Amino acid sequence: MTAPTEERVRRIVHVDMDAFYASVEQRDNSELRGRPVAVGGIRRGVVAAASYEARRFGVRSAMPSMRAMRLCPDLVFVKPRFDVYRAVSQQVRDIFFEYTPLVEPLSLDEAYLDLTDYLHGRTATRIAQEIRARIREATGLTASAGVSYNKFLAKLASDQRKPDGLFVIPPEAGPEFVHGLPIGRFHGIGPATAARMESHGILTGADLARQTLEFLTARFGKSGTYYWNIARGIDTREVKPNRIRKSIGAENTYFEDLRDLPAAHEALEVLADKVWRHATNAGRVGRTVTLKVKYGDFRQITRARSLPRPVESRDEMLGMARDLLGPVFADPHGVRLLGITLSGLDEARQDEPPRQLGLFDQA
UmuC domain: from which residue to which, for each copy (predicted)? Predict the structure, then answer.
């Protein structure tokens, strides 16, 4: 591949807060510092976030809490504080907007920034360093950043030197960097797709780059074009600060299949909190709730329910998801994935304040 010419090179930064929820809890409670911490429920729930001390024991997000406790008997569970996380996230975003209006938040703890036309005589790397320093000063937390010429590589770069790191992938190094990565590291390639690729002998970026576009589209449909491009370090997606979303969703794949309905109900609470938080932050309301269920044998179903009016609250959305889950939950293979999507979106009425999230022992 020919590296982008200087006139076409974009300067994209991906900023990712380090172990965000857990780090906020450690910041605010000195007794938690240096200890393995998990944000989430202790009994039937799942881990929503884990500190780096906990990750050394193999504790990861979406892991059942009881499994996490077996891996790390000294693990400390804390309930989430969504109001605090949102407030800190807003502090961080305010810093971003001082450097560029082109900020595309992906969640409370990460965002893309396009600095191409806002360098003002500085390099994107220098600005990323400054942003990280200001985040630490303003919040007491650390952030990792990746700098590159497109979104795909910037996101990969931000994960290279976590925590509290900065990594740069220049245009001339992009394809080679991608070729050396295992497929499982690629953003946009999940475990199931990675397994399918591995069945075709595609284990690394270099293996993926050797495939023809026809081969990839024949086996992976429309996504084949995306895979062909990223294997060559190509990603033309723009940073879009005002994306018009058709739906807002969240899903989790569980390390151990869910076989207990109360545990599945708690897992749905985690997802409902995420979806409702994202909808509230985006100023959107929706009329249709869709439940996604993947069983232990990889069969997948969806069930949906629509209202003649917008869903009024997080609890109403959760209730609809639970009603949809009940008739399809019992299965001898257990449930390995759950998802909730809110669609039929419209702008929230400006004369009504956004409803507060119901607090639950998950994030």
Answer: 12-190
Flag whether 109 is marked binding.
yes
d(CA 140, CA 161): 19
Cα–Cα distances in angstroms (integers) from residue 343 to residues 62, 242, 302, 337, in the given order: 24, 17, 14, 20
Domains in the chain (CATH in brackets) are: 20-80 (3.40.1170.60), 180-230 (1.10.150.20), 247-347 (3.30.1490.100)
Residues 6+ apart with CB under 8 A from 72: 36, 54, 57, 58, 59
Helix or strand run (H / E) with residue 144:
strand 143-148
Residues with a known catalytic role = 110
The answer to whether 315 is annotated as binding is no
Average pLDDT per 10 consecutive residues for the chain, totaling 363 residues: 59 97 96 95 77 96 87 94 90 93 92 95 96 96 98 96 96 95 89 91 96 95 93 94 76 88 92 88 86 91 93 94 95 92 74 34 31
Give the type of residue at 359.
Answer: L
